[in-house]
Amino acid sequence: MAALEHKIDFLALVSVTKANGNGDPLNGNRPRVDYNGIGEISDVCIKRKIRNRMQDLGNPIFVQSEDRCADGFGSLSERASASLKGIKDREEYARRACETWLDVRTFGSQGQQRTAALSLKLSEIALIRRIRGENPVLLLDDVFSELDGRRQKLLLSAVEGCQCFITCTGLEELGELGDVPLQVYAVSGGELSEI
After folding, report:
1. What is the per-residue pLDDT across 121-159, written as a single tens digit (0 to 9) for each?
2. CA nearest 97: which of 129, 63, 136?
């Protein structure tokens, strides 16, 4: 098999008859349709099918769906920490991660890619804590935009104890955090003010 060298190296055409080629998991796995009732199959669905096939063929996958978890890890952070344990150099850490798993950008949705990147960052935090015995200062830029409320809370609990600056584009992104104590500031017209 030739290596894929470009972002788009092939075209796949799919025809589905009397079947659900792209069930919507948020809608009872019913077929996705546009406003005219025409069936759709998304790029994310195709990526998921390819990812699952690659996993079935024995390839290690970093972002695994919960129902197809092959290694028993409950989170991406656990998977990264356990598999890359003992690596202290950041470049070596990234190189080994790329050698260990298929690239998440190939198969993951934008939310999955963001979750994978955050998981690697969280495992770096654990690494810094273990090596230096102190918490790092974090700057997380627009991390909430692709995360649901549950993942937002998990992220905040994972960075507890760290001085953390998180940017977001609007206060609505903080709506589901409820009881999490935050200091919130707004920047408008070059002025910083506490909300």
Report:
1. 887 888 788 888 888 888 888 887 777 777 788 888 888
2. 63
Angle at which helix 110-132 crosses helix 76-83, to 10 degrees, equals: 50
Residue 74 carries which side chain, given as an amino acid letter? G
DSSP 3-state of 22: coil
pLDDT, tens only, 76-106? 888 888 888 888 887 888 788 878 887 666 6
- Give the Cα separation of 113 and 130 in Å (integer): 26
Is the confidence at residue 7, as pLDDT, over 60? no
Which residues are registered as beta bridge partners of 151? none
Query: CA–CA separation, 32 vs 37, rounded Å?
Result: 9
Closest CA to 143 of 175, 179, 163, 115: 115
